Structure of Aspartyl/glutamyl-tRNA(Asn/Gln) amidotransferase subunit B:
Amino acid sequence: MQWETVIGLEIHTQLATQSKIFSAAPTAFGAEPNTQACAIDLGLPGVLPVLNAEVVRLAVRFGTAIGAEIAPRSVFARKNYFYPDLPKGYQISQYELPIVGRGQVEIVLDDGSVKTIGVTRAHLEEDAGKSLHDDSLLGGGYTGVDLNRAGTPLLEIVSEPDMRSPEEAVAYARKIHQLVRYIGISDGNMQEGSFRVDANVSVRPLGSDTFGTRTEIKNVNSFRFLERAIAFEVERQIDLLEDGGSVVQETRLYDAANDETRSMRTKEEANDYRYFPDPDLLPVEIESAFIERVAAELPELPDAKRARFRDAFGLSEYDANLLAGSRALADYFEVVARTSGEPKLAANWVSGELMAALNKAGLEIDASPVSAEGLAGLIARIKDGTISGKIAKQVFEAMWQGEDDADQVIEQKGLKQITDTGAIESMIDEIIAANSAQVEQYRAGKDKVFGFFVGQVMKASAGKANPQQVNTILKDKLKP
Ligand code: ADP
Ligand code: MG
């Protein structure tokens, strides 16, 4: 049987605020355990939560960026459960009335096709604390609780079950990641837990119009693991169903070391949580003027940038998407494209040579040793024929090592392309004279020998002879 995969993602992104969602305690990462939790985060009696206004602004910023309806009135609810890292016994979240309603984003797949993915809702909530299973604690056998994270503001972004492959799920997760960083509502740091993805996965016979039973995979902290976790889970479900079994709705954990998912607990239903409106917090009421103001402050968004790169610069959807990947990269590319006046060459160089060098050195674009102006200068020299594309790689290498001016490098290293016809002709004459056997072979019809001659000329000129001229002159002189 042919199976179809169905995936919906729930993404928790930490909002970039100085203080917590309902208290003034700091949110900075990496502090000593339990030094950044106050009485409100701990849920001590006699204290009241106060909503951080900045959190509302950031949520609205996200909502307007995905074209979503912003709720004029949203409500905080208590989600009740018992866990050591949740001293209040409930988490403050939004349930029936979330702040952000239905919106959508576009993803670009590897083949350049574009697909729209629905966002069902996005709601505000507080994070819980963290249990530390560390054997060095008190000599071992204990679990510690660090409440620094308790009360950290999260925006939970829930997608429609619109994705049909691990690749699409990763593209969507990357898209949300890109977006929250573009609009500056989160640093998106996955190692520090600022961006966490839960994947809901099911399969169904291809062509079926009802969904299969889903499982939810938690604890996925990289895009690579997300892809592998979903791929594993899809296989597992198909095997189960083909063996006559059925999928149990449950929460599963991805174990990266063994590349498998394991059952964690059976799925709880919403009514297990006994949600009810939090009596300590007023509903959030948002005026349309506020929404308009926040929308007006948005920067150019990734989709708009991609479309502009595609249309204004004639780039493929894939390249445009790649170069619009982050604001810093897009800004860099745009300077190279405009300064050099050669957007396609600029796209090739930025997405090829430059990105490879950055990846190899583990650097972000902001730390590139070759500036955008420097790279534009190099491209200008390719365009005006001063150097060939091949020599340009040598120049780039030297620029990467520290000399940012392409003209300086070309001058110092004597890399200027040889375009003087007379000079190329005399080099070719010498080579022809010294290789009469190969000349015979070529004239006898062995076309392959032509490459040998090109190689000899390039060697003699240290790669500097203009390749087109070499070709033309060689053809001419080798004619029987
Ligand atoms: P819950 O309240 O139990 O978390 P939701 O209905 O809010 O469930 O859905 C949570 C996520 O699961 C959403 O992203 C949704 O798109 C996804 N989802 C729902 N049904 C399925 C399914 N059958 N297969 C895959 N994903 C699903
Ligand atoms: Mg859920």
Remarks:
- Residues 223-242 form the longest helix (20 residues).
